Automatic annotation (TrEMBL):
Keyword Signal: yes
The organism's place on the tree of life at top rank: Bacteria
Transferase among keywords: no
Protein name stated in the entry: ABC transporter substrate-binding protein
Signal peptide: 1-24
Residue ranges occupied by any Leucine-binding protein domain in the UniProt entry: 37-374
Coiled-coil region(s): none
Stated family: Belongs to the leucine-binding protein family.
Length: 397
């Protein structure tokens, strides 16, 4: 577990300590020091199968702040970090390191849906602003939605639903699904199934393996013997690289059409190489969007990090844009929580993916692109579903 504090100045510490004491004496929570820094707490995976995703999110976030001269709402930004290891069991404790120990103004986290549930609980209990820069856990913008909980990414239901429509419209009838057995995979499959079965398709078998296992042989063998019209999968990060290679090595690439949410091929193409060529996926970002905002974003990202950006970098960048909307509405006074939340909820985010707004449950209402792998790119080939909103079942806001 690592924790990094950048440029923490002694006078700022004294000021914060004084305010904390003042808060304790009055029984009121300590207000943020208006003249101090905005404290951003990254709770992200920096190790394990999702490590690259955490880094891309942080890179994107920092880049937006840099573009604003290092300030949001007129205040400098200070970063705190916790490696959540994609381990749900440690999530409440890790979130409390940022909320209780570091007293951050906002938690930016995380990637893994199971870990997200622990962060949501801590954020709700403490009324801390939470911006989710990836994890799709449907609950966070469903039954567990809250005034302080926002997402810059997607709900698990969304990309699955978009792909369910595409596969049904292609006339596929019998589909097998395969995922890691945890919320992200299960909820993606549920979204896929909802759209696919509404248009007359049938899921003939739902296969899974524990997260983050990458021994896919038994499932691949079973799929080969089931001979479905197509397969829908959810995998991401290091596991996605391995699955795509194993699928091709088993000789199924040209035999059974493979469809997935775009995480299967985002940020992974260099490692997947020939095995990924031609794969089609749905996601809220793609290569070749040709909008000026995206072009500038990609140029800046490549220059800053010597890397091509991916969907995770975009989500991090937009998490910072959402924070900026809240911080500038209160001129940096993050203690005005209700006003911060109101401003973020009403924001139009000028994202590299295309402009989006937030639903009443605070989840992006956004286009889902159909993409096809060509070389090292997930080339956009169309819009699978326009302005898709998660149904936000169970959210009362
Ligand atoms: C999730 O756990 O919600 C998750 C993880 C990685 C992804 C997408 C979703 O790429």
């Amino acid at each position: 577990m690592h924790r990094f504090i950048s440029r923490r100045l002694a006078p700022a510490c004294v000021a914060v300590a004084a305010l904390t004491l003042a808060g304790a004496a009055t029984g009121q929570p300590a207000p943020s020091a208006a003249a101090g820094k905005i404290k951003v707490g990254f709770m992200l995976p920096y190790t394990g199968t999702y490590a690259a995703l955490g880094t891309a999110i942080e890179n994107g976030f920092r880049m937006y702040v840099q573009e604003q001269g290092g300030r949001l709402g007129g205040r400098e930004v200070e970063y705190f970090k916790v490696d959540d290891e994609s381990d749900p069991a440690k999530a409440p404790e890790n979130a409390n390191k940022l909320v209780k120990r570091d007293q951050v103004d906002v938690v930016v986290g995380t990637v893994h849906s199971g870990v997200q549930m622990g962060i949501v609980k801590v954020a709700k209990e403490s009324n801390t602003l939470l911006i989710i820069p990836n994890a799709g856990a449907d609950e966070a913008t469903g039954p567990l939605c809250g005034p302080n909980i926002f997402r810059s990414s997607f709900s698990n239901w969304q990309p699955g639903y978009a792909m369910g429509q595409v596969v049904a419209e292609r006339g596929m009838k019998r589909v097998v699904t395969l995922t890691w057995k945890y919320a992200a995979g299960e909820q993606s499959v549920r979204g896929f199934k909802e759209a696919f079965e509404a248009k007359g398709g049938k899921i003939v078998k739902e296969l899974s393996l524990p997260f983050p296992n990458v021994e896919f042989q038994a499932q691949i063998t079973e799929i080969a013997s089931l001979k479905p019209d197509a397969v829908f999968v959810f995998f991401a990060g290091g596991g996605a690289v391995k699955f795509v290679k194993d699928w091709a090595a088993a000789g199924l690439k040209d035999k059974i059409p493979l469809y997935a949410s775009g995480f299967l091929t985002d940020g992974t193409l260099e490692a997947q190489g020939a095995a990924a060529q031609g794969l089609e996926t749905t996601l809220h970002y793609a290569d070749g969007l040709q909008n000026p905002r995206d072009k500038q974003f990609r140029l800046n990202y490549a220059k800053a990090y010597k890397l091509q950006p991916d969907v995770y970098a975009v989500q991090g960048y937009d998490a910072a844009q959402m924070l900026a909307a809240g911080a500038s509405a209160v001129k940096g006074d993050m203690s005005r929580k209700a006003d911060v939340y109101k401003a973020i909820a009403a924001a139009r985010i000028d994202s590299p993916r295309g402009t989006f707004t937030l639903s009443r449950a605070h989840n992006p209402v956004q286009d889902f692109y159909l993409r096809k792998v060509e070389g090292r790119e997930n080339k956009v080939s169309g819009i699978a579903v326009k302005a898709l909103a998660d149904p936000a079942r169970g959210c009362r806001l």
